[in-house]
Recover the amino acids of this structure.
């Protein structure tokens, strides 16, 4: 066998730089449908299991087979997880190979499949060629499955190049194949043989290394969708209706995985019901029906589904029915970029429904918060008797993130103002009367045995007694009460998380998954002597703390992944007197924001 | 709530206690008659009002849940979306019995998808269609059940074939499909009673003439004209006060020709006593034939109780999901710790 190292000259400064340990990004470029995800996730979890902070982002096409897909793994001993350019490329996709190589920075590393006929041209990179066909020729696995296992060759080569212990890879494969040893063995066979081949045939010349740490020992690695689904289950969700749509499908997949495990009773009966609806109109309709009848109910969808749900969302708001809607945002309008991330549904969801409508929104920005909002969303929906939206995004929902093990919910489920038959008593029950001054009436559930407790819920104009009414006063009063209820929500929703620096003249407001790019950008800025404050909005409507934060800074940059600056616009409307302090930093191209971008935008703020 | 007056049933309620608000539908509308049959049946069966939910979409028909069973919860929802709402409500509490009221527009046009999927899932509810072939609230457009070739003052000529909602129900897998006429109180009551005891979706398509807008002037439905109450287009806001059309009891196999308010006729034929309601193919064939001869066959068209209801398919226990205590809803600390270990 020939030497497989391309001994092209590479810059001396790399050698002078010394080893770069636990601080790099790598990207695996493959074609969709070739089964690379197992290899990618095995690599990710191996690094995690070695105690090193790590995060993976799957940049995948809306396609079943053939289109290019990239898996970015960021290894950071400092714990940063935002997207950044990769120094190491695993080039296994002939369609994108040249472009992928062109994107590498000087001194970058290119591990490529030699069978693709690629001839290295850039002389500022380190190349490692792998004879993939030859490496899997001896595998016991035959036929089509052999292609799948071919991806294990780069895992084996990286085990050698980055010094990842094979035992960590085996453990990760065992995790992914749920301890089905036969599958683990056949994959490990390829990993091991490529590793051995690499030891004999590759000379390590690049500086990137893995070194075990102890920074992830107490952490978990999970997707936001899995975390949200678990949160909902620990919040007692009993009814789920949904229609498949990327990137929310894995949210329901997780529910369907964990519900049978956690919610089958002693008699073998389910204490939950999951229905795959005929469309999103039906999904939200079923959820409202269940919420009205007293069960905790949710649906999970994405932008196009939200469009279809707007009719029922308006009914839910107006008829005051609890429901939880997870919107795992993707790029729109229209079908848009179905597999790319976005924060583009903020304005739409906030005002979803015709007429005067405003909705409660939660913005989780970590797997811990996906879990927490998974159950608090149901508390809020029932306490406020209204649909509550949880806006996650594809990046948060479908990718694996590190987090602390979830804390068990404190306190009992908050079921809101629901009257039993006894509580209805003998006085006439008035469904929509604002008895407590918080805009929230008392409700009864179907099945309430007190004959005075029944009422007809409707989306048409109604008076306090829920009777049909076209009286002008009835409409205006009811509408004012709903606005009052929304003000009550301000103090009930999770408040913002604030990180202040006393000398900061610039503040940053962000929400959801962009917080990681902001965190990293702030650290960089701080190292160069530029202080910033940071307020992370966790819910809408906002409360007074947001005003205080804006007042404390000369300018406040509102960072978000959309074109029009949607949260920026909402905040300007909310605080017109502070509108000129708010500077929009909005951008959307389907890729998660980077710290570099945020940093540049902060430095552009004119004080 | 209305106080008990006169005769009471097994659970001590009078007929009037099953009543609702006064109807705001037109005088003589078939829908009012159906509402009063629901009241009568609930009274006769001694149904507990709190065990019933009333559901509807949007339209004249969908207003009617306000007019019966005032001591039962109800939800007047969105146009064509009552099936979804009902599915969720009945999964949350499958101990409830649901009476859904829809119309031909609500079911046959905007809601046909949800209708077919409700039936397909076999959600346990009585699904009433108050079918008049016309949109009343928007003043007289054709619905999808309007006869092909029919003419309406407002809408002109209908070039499209009618959708037979009973056929749609049967092909979607419905185990209880019946048709009746609003003016045939006795048949409506007996079919309602049967529908209420069906385990699954029971579809009851009730021809319920519109007094205001089914102003058919070409009368393809039937053979006669003789319109007496015709009113011109420009006076469309004028709705004549009409008497409700009733049909006296007629025998199985018999044909009855009913004159509608606009002078047109419909032909009702009661299914023969020996009709086999267990044959799905024959039921569809029978309905197709009736359509060709411009007749409405009435009675129980198809019955099959073998399919499990959705609650059974979903393996629900006896206790409704909505009434489960926290201990059965929220998994334990140990459950959470176990899952956390898995993601380490």
């Amino acid at each position: 066998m020939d030497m497989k190292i391309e001994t092209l000259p590479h810059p001396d400064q790399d050698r002078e730089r010394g080893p770069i340990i636990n601080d790099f990004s790598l990207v695996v470029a493959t074609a969709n449908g070739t089964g690379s995800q197992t290899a990618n996730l095995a690599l990710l979890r191996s690094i995690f299991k070695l105690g090193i902070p790590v995060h993976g982002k799957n940049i995948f096409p809306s396609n079943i087979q053939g289109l290019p897909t990239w898996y970015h793994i960021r290894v950071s001993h400092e714990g940063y997880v935002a997207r950044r350019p990769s120094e190491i490329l695993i080039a296994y996709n002939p369609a994108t190979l040249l472009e992928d190589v062109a994107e590498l920075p000087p001194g970058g590393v290119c591990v490529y499949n030699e069978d693709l006929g690629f001839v290295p041209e850039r002389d500022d990179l380190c190349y490692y060629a792998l004879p993939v066909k030859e490496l899997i020729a001896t595998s016991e696995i035959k036929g089509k499955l052999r292609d799948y296992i071919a991806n294990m060759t780069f895992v084996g080569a990286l085990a050698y190049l980055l010094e990842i212990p094979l035992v960590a890879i085996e453990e990760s494969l065992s995790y992914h194949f749920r301890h089905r040893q036969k599958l683990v063995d056949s994959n490990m066979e390829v990993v091991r043989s490529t590793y051995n081949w690499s030891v004999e045939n590759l000379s390590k010349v690049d500086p990137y290394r893995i070194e075990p740490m102890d920074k992830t020992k107490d952490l978990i690695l999970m997707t936001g969708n899995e975390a949200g689904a678990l949160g909902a289950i620990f919040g007692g969700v009993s009814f789920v209706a949904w229609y498949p749509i990327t990137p929310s499908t894995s949210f329901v997949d997780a529910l369907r995985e964990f519900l049978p495990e956690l919610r089958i009773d002693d008699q073998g009966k389910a204490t939950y019901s999951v229905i795959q609806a005929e469309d999103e109109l039906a999904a939200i309709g079923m959820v409202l029906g269940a919420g009205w009848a007293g069960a905790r109910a949710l649906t999970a969808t994405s932008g196009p589904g939200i469009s279809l749900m707007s009719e029922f969302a308006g009914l839910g708001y107006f008829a005051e029915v609890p429901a939880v809607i997870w919107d795992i945002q993707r790029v729109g309008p229209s079908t848009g970029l179905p597999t790319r991330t976005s924060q583009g549904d903020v304005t739409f969801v906030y005002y979803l429904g015709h007429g005067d409508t405003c909705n409660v929104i939660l913005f989780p920005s970590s797997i811990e918060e996906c879990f927490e909002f998974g159950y608090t969303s149901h508390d809020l929906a029932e306490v406020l008797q209204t649909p509550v939206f949880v806006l996650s995004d594809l990046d948060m929902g479908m990718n694996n993130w590190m987090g602390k093990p979830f804390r068990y919910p404190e306190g009992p489920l908050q079921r809101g103002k629901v009257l039993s038959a006894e509580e209805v008593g003998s006085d006439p029950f008035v469904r929509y009367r604002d008895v407590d001054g918080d805009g929230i009436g008392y409700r009864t559930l179907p099945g309430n045995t007190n004959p005075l407790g029944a009422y007809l819920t409707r989306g048409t104009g109604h008076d306090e007694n829920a009777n049909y009414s076209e009286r002008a006063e009835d409409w205006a009063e009811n509408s004012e009460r709903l606005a009052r209820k929304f003000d009550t929500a301000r103090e009930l929703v999770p408040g913002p998380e604030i990180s202040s620096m006393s000398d900061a003249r610039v503040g940053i407001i962000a929400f959801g998954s962009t917080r990681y790019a902001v965190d990293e950008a702030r650290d960089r800025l701080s190292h160069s002597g530029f202080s910033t404050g940071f307020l992370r909005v966790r819910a809408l409507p906002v409360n007074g703390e947001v005003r205080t934060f804006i007042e404390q800074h000369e300018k406040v940059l509102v960072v978000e992944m959309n074109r029009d600056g949607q949260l920026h616009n909402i905040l300007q409307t909310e605080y017109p007197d502070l509108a000129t302090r708010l500077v929009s930093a909005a951008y959307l191209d389907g890729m998660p924001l980077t710290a570099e971008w945020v940093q540049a935008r902060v430095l552009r703020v004119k004080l | 709530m209305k106080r008990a007056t006169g005769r009471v049933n097994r659970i001590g309620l009078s007929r009037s206690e099953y009543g609702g608000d006064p109807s705001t539908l037109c005088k003589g509308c078939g829908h009012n008659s159906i509402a009063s049959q629901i009241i009568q049946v609930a009274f006769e069966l001694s149904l507990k009002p709190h065990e019933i939910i009333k559901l509807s979409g949007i339209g004249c028909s969908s207003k009617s849940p306000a007019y019966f069973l005032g001591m039962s919860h109800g939800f007047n929802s969105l146009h064509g979306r009552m099936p979804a709402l009902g599915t969720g409500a009945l999964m949350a509490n499958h101990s409830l019995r649901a009476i859904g009221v829809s119309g031909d527009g609500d079911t046959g046009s905007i809601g046909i998808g949800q209708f077919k999927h409700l039936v397909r899932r076999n959600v346990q509810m009585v699904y009433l269609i108050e079918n008049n072939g016309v949109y009343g609230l928007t003043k007289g457009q054709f619905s999808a059940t309007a006869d092909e070739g029919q003419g309406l003052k407002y809408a002109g000529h209908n070039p499209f074939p009618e959708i037979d909602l009973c056929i749609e129900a049967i092909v979607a897998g419905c185990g209880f499909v019946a048709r009746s006429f609003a003016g045939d109180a006795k048949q409506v009551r007996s079919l309602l009673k049967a529908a209420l005891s069906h385990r699954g979706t029971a579809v009851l398509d009730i021809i319920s003439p519109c007094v205001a807008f089914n102003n058919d002037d070409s009368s393809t439905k039937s053979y006669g004209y003789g319109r007496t109450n015709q009113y011109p287009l420009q006076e469309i806001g004028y709705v004549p006060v009409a008497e409700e059309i009733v049909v006296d009891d007629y025998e199985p196999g018999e044909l009855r020709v009913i004159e509608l308010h606009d002078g047109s006729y419909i032909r009702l034929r009661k299914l023969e006593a020996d009709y086999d309601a267990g044959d799905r193919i024959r039921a569809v064939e029978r309905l197709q034939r009736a359509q060709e001869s411009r007749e409405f066959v009435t009675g129980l068209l198809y019955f099959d109780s073998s399919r499990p209801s959705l609650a059974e398919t979903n393996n629900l226990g006896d206790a409704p999901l909505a009434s489960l205590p926290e201990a059965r809803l929220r998994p334990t600390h140990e459950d959470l710790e176990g899952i956390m270990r898995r993601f380490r």
Q: What stands out?
A: Chain A touches chain B through 75 residues (CB under 8 Å). Confidence is low (pLDDT under 50) at residues 1-15 of chain A. The domain at 5-215 of chain A is CATH 3.40.920.10 (Pyruvate-ferredoxin Oxidoreductase; domain 3).
